[in-house]
Amino acid sequence: MSEKITLQQIADKLGVGKATVCRALKDHPNVSEATRQLVKKTAVTMGYTKDPAISNMAHYRWPNRLSSQSLVIAAIASKRYEASFPEIRYRSAHAMADVLGYRVDEFYLSDYPNPMRLHGILSSRGIQGLLIGPLYGEQLPCAFWDNFTSVLYGQSWFKPPLHEVLPDHFMGVRKAISEIRKCGYKNIGLLLDRPLLADDNDLRLGAFLMETTGPSSTMKGHVLRGDNVPPEKLRTWITRNKLELVICLSHENLKLLQLAGYSVPDQIGFVSLNVPNDNPSSPAMAGLNLQPDVVGRASVTLLDSLLRQNEKGIPNHQIRLLIEPCWISGPTIHALHT
């Protein structure tokens, strides 16, 4: 087996320091373009290949490398978090960033007169990595992503064309219906009361129809669309279709069922597609845990990988990393007597 070429051998060949070779291969801005190209050409000629084991060992040898501004990740959202999911996701991302040697600073678009003002501040601070989301209504210009490595990890009404990490809503709905079926429910409804979340709702609707309209399906499915559905409209829909259980995105719709006059689960079952994570040991309802902690960790891991590859701007090919939700058994569903 031939001897593995080292950075020192390349440096000796060119008469430069080992640190210069290392920086040139990583496209460090402090190394001139001519030197970078010469180092890369020499590395290819000599047969140099990066050793991932050594890279990982060096990476974890200095887990608290916080002196350089380039090691700051910006977590960007429209406004400060109001729900448990984004808060848990952010805390988990922050913890993983600590492990990998980054610091996370938060920025909110609502604090700036326009997105490009924030762009200028991030650039002046030398920040290279961005975690994006949630975005509510902002359609950021393509120029905003220039010179940044970005990962979308939160719900956005207008999704920028970036790599993203998100819950697998399609498989989550299929998993939920599988558990519902085991309890004996046969006539179920899906309430889609947030039409602005079109992308995710289409995934949920597709999975629901797949499970309830297929030739081998033993269940009947009914769909109600609309924002801020009043209790009387909900009751009419349930009565007309003789529903045994309602699936909703928002856990707050449990109160809507009760306002409509239903006792849960005695008169009708309820499943949330986003069970709050406030008390996982004693959930208030049955449904899906979208695993915001896993989403947060995976987002930082993906961003770290992209930063190492020096990928900038809008990618030519998007990576979509899907995190499978977990089913949570809760008191809003029970086995039916058949």
Structure summarized in a few sentences:
By secondary structure, the protein is of the alpha/beta class. The protein is built from 11 helices and 12 strands.
Report on the structure:
This protein has 338 residues and is α/β, with parallel strands linked by helices. Helices cover 39% and strands 17% of the residues. It has helices spanning 7-14, 18-25, 33-46, 52-61, 84-100, 115-124, 169-182, 198-213, 231-241, 253-259, 292-308, and strands at residues 72-77, 103-108, 129-132, 149-152, 163-167, 187-192, 220-225, 245-248, 269-272, 286-289, 320-323, 326-328. The strands form 2 sheets. It has a 6-stranded parallel beta sheet with strand order 2-1-3-4-5-11, covered by helices on one side. A 6-stranded mixed beta sheet has the order 7-6-8-9-10-12, with helices on both faces. The model is unreliable at 56-70 (pLDDT under 50).
